Amino acid sequence: AASCRSRSEAKSGRTDLIFLIRFRHCCLLRNQRCVVAYLYDRLLRIRALRWEYGSVLPSAIHFHMSAEEVEWFNRYKKSLATYMRSVGGEEGLDLTQDIKPPKSLYIEVRCLKDYGEFEIDDGTTVLLKKNSQHFLPRWKCEQLIRQGVLEHVLS
């Protein structure tokens, strides 16, 4: 008798359950799309952090990343480094240096903290001590500016 009742319910269609199942399935698919979009946006932001801060992230940013995001950042960092070594000849080409085209090749910088000796390509060394100002090649000190060792002095 029970099997006859379930067959008659199946034949009658129970359209109210089918509608609810379809509605729930559509809600789950929408939520899945939202989560994937959110995760993709986070990956784009993490990729941008590599270009903005260099290969070492500040601890405040690193603290807010999950272990998987840190792993993805490290893999992206290694992949980018491998590519930059492959295109630049012997020394490689650092693509992260001039994100915006420079107006001049040399800039005036102020040292924010003691760093020590800093060698320029022509062989001269400059002692970077706190509050000292120097006129250095832009491409050579941009990484130190991003790390917070130097600041660009605007004339």
TrEMBL record:
InterPro entries in UniProt: GINS_A, GINS_bundle-like_dom_sf, GINS_Psf1, PSF1_C
Subcellular location: Nucleus
Source taxon at top rank: Eukaryota
Keyword Ribosomal protein: no
GO biological process, one term: DNA strand elongation involved in mitotic DNA replication
Database matches in CDD domains: GINS_A_psf1, GINS_B_Psf1
Keyword Nucleus: yes
GO cellular component, as recorded: GINS complex
Predominant location category: nucleus
Quaternary structure note: Component of the GINS complex.
DNA replication complex GINS protein PSF1 C-terminal domain: residues covered: 103-154
Keywords assigned: DNA replication, Nucleus
Recorded family membership: Belongs to the GINS1/PSF1 family.
Protein name in the entry: DNA replication complex GINS protein PSF1
All copies of domain GINS subunit, residue ranges: 16-87
Function: Required for correct functioning of the GINS complex, a complex that plays an essential role in the initiation of DNA replication, and progression of DNA replication forks. GINS complex seems to bind preferentially to single-stranded DNA.
